[in-house]
Amino acid sequence: MSDHQGTGAPEGVIAPTGMGGAMDLAASEAETLEKTPGGPLGTGPAGKPRSLWSDAWRDLRRNPVFIVSALVILFLVFISLWPSAIASGSPLKCNLSKAQQGSQPGAPFGYDGQGCNVYTRTVYGARTSVTVGVCATLGVAILGSILGGFAGFFGGFWDSILSRITDVFFAIPVVLGGLVLLSVVTSNTVWPVIGFMVLLGWPQISRIARGSVITAKQNDYVQAARALGASNSRLLLRHITPNAVAPVIVVATIALGTYISLEATLSYLGVGLKPPSVSWGIDISAASPYIRNAPHALLWPSGALAVTVLAFIMLGDAVRDALDPKLR
Asked: For residue 130, what are the CA distances in angstroms to 28, 76, 100, 108, 271?
């Protein structure tokens, strides 16, 4: 009879030490080790190794910056989809007899120089900003990732051509390009503005995607897959893209706020969205001459724009911190 049986202690189990020997573990300790999330070697609850994305999501849930920015963005998305849920009336309905009046029942933000309800226009303006920001970011990310990914993967002649093209686009000032290109557009929709942002925004994502693909394709697992006869499409889709997309996501998330502010800037200058479209940039431009008599008409759309851009930049910073292994 062993000492464990004589003392009534739980029966020991043998576990490898990693040094060629073994150590005795109590059954309760072994059970605890098996149930511990993450395990001793960074594995998941089921004993599977954690991925970059699972680690990133775990860090994001613990990051107050991410939580606050995500809540603000969810609220913006909600009022973009259903603005009538918190704002009654039409943003185009104005009453000149109430022009430049301050806060009052039904108009907590007051009225602008045309007698329009500033609160209603501020709420409805979120739809334009979110639509432009999201669509422009998706277009830039898709186009830039495809061109940069292929250039980084195949290299050679195509890489040289793409590099020279991106240099040309980087030399074009964004605001000046918008003044030139959008001044000849007569459409009042958001699509010309989105198209302009995609046209001048893809080179930045392309450079990021190119560098990520060049780094990823030099890894051993890619070389092994190539040696086993994997096709170029399989290498790109199964092995390189999942490990090269993180920097693109980070840059695109931060750039989303930049595109929102760019739309407001172009609308303020009169070449972006035009009335009767509802936009924070249009409202800021219209309220500028009345800044002394009716500062509230300028304050609220400007504040909404600043909060929106800040929320997306904070979200991008949180995602960057979560996806960058060097910051762990």
From this structure: 54, 8, 27, 23, 19
